[in-house]
Amino acid sequence: MGSTSAHNNEGLGRRDLIKRSAALGLIAVPTMSFLSACASGSGDSDDNKVAKGEKSDKNPLAVNGSAPLEIVIFDGGFGTKYAEEARDVYKKTYPEAQIKFSATQKIQSVLQPRFNGGTPPDLIDNSGAQQMDMGVLVGKKQLTDLTPLLDAPSVDDPSKTVRDTLRPGIVEMGQFDGDPVWMLYYAYTVYGVWYSQTALDKLDATYPETWDEMLALCEKAKKQGIAGWTYPGKHPYYIPFSLYPFIGKIGGVEVLNAIDNLEPKAWEHPAVKAAFEAYYELYAKGYILKGTPGLDHRGSQGAWARGKALFIPNGSWVENEEAAIIPKDFKLSVGAPSGLDSSDKLPFGTIWASGGEPFIVPAKAKNPAGGMEQLRIMLSEASSKSFTTNTKSLSALNGGTDGIELSDGLKSGVAALEKAGTNVVNPRLQDWYVKLQKEQIGVAGLGEMMAGRATPAETIKKIQGFADAAAKDQSIKHFRHQ
């Protein structure tokens, strides 16, 4: 298929390639409550705080070494070993401290009642499907500003602050409105289209740089009984991990910024239309693994790892999450989104990479200094190497990989970042507006479209309606790119 010249004046080229004989109807929008807004009440109170310790060069945050510390970690793709090892360092540093350490996949349902009751833990890895809404937490003033941590001396080199040791963009991701930093994204995640280079080699194929090449490869795989794509059908907000940078590649970063800013008609941009129609074509041509809409993240990743599908939109945690079943000769790789056509605003290689695994210190934590000190320890070179070794992923520390034998997926991620150069995009919907991103854009929007129950045009209209409602909702705090 080639470009459609009749639409070249839009500056986007290949527009009308997806033809459908009839529009498909929408089903009812599911109602979900697991990401409902957290916590009544706001502000900070010193009533329940532990007494501060003595500030010194070795204790720049004035940690009370005998005070209890409670840590809750999301038990997901990265596991908990890295956090347990950092906890042990804290325990060795402050041997009198009683540390309560727990892990769960149900962050919101376990911790929301504690936020409501004013008894949250001191440090939380706020991640996963039940992640608490970041925008709500910030808007309700339920988080501690981590600026003291960022301005504290780093563990390895006291002449540098923690801030000085972080990868580009990490600090900015934790800022929602002005200078305060409300969360520390500990992982550095590469999002994209993940695949097995071995599987492509068996098809005598290379990773497709254009959408025509993508469709041709999917057709070739289909003839061999292999699906082109799968994705977590029960959690379709994974789809944007490749779809959003695809939109940015087609129309430029300003399109993604307009979407993040909840601007009117942002979802009606031609770049969005083109990207949605391209992805819908995967469904229309039968290139999606049968049964995908009913699979959760582990189910879809498992099918992909076993060779039932070539591609899956995901983040770099997938290597660790599926380590037990990914074959040794898999040659795990990540690709930036294939381009639409030669009129794309950004070059091939444009990718989404940003901080992941957001750690927070609640405003009403009893031992906020202890929570920040645990993060300071985690941002040491030793802890960073532990994280990379245990999870096959980069940390927020700018470096920390010397002497480590990088896994296939991690090497591919590093290579993808090098190829991208400055063409790295960072959409903010998933941390600014969690409900909008997951429940509405993901499940009610993209999930329905990719299952064939709604057309791209219907989906765009629906998602724009969700975005407009969020923009008008005065009960939530709104954020904008500066």
Automatic annotation (TrEMBL):
<dbReference type="GO" id="GO:0030313">
    <property type="term" value="C:cell envelope"/>
</dbReference>
<dbReference type="InterPro" id="IPR006059">
    <property type="entry name" value="SBP"/>
</dbReference>
<comment type="similarity">
    <text>Belongs to the bacterial solute-binding protein 1 family.</text>
</comment>
<keyword id="KW-0732">Signal</keyword>
<dbReference type="InterPro" id="IPR006311">
    <property type="entry name" value="TAT_signal"/>
</dbReference>
<feature type="compositionally biased region" description="Basic and acidic residues">
    <location>
        <begin position="46"/>
        <end position="58"/>
    </location>
</feature>
<feature type="region of interest" description="Disordered">
    <location>
        <begin position="42"/>
        <end position="61"/>
    </location>
</feature>
<dbReference type="InterPro" id="IPR022386">
    <property type="entry name" value="Chitin_NgcE"/>
</dbReference>
<keyword id="KW-0813">Transport</keyword>
<dbReference type="InterPro" id="IPR050490">
    <property type="entry name" value="Bact_solute-bd_prot1"/>
</dbReference>
<dbReference type="Pfam" id="PF01547">
    <property type="entry name" value="SBP_bac_1"/>
</dbReference>
<protein>
    <submittedName>
        <fullName>ABC transporter substrate-binding protein</fullName>
    </submittedName>
</protein>
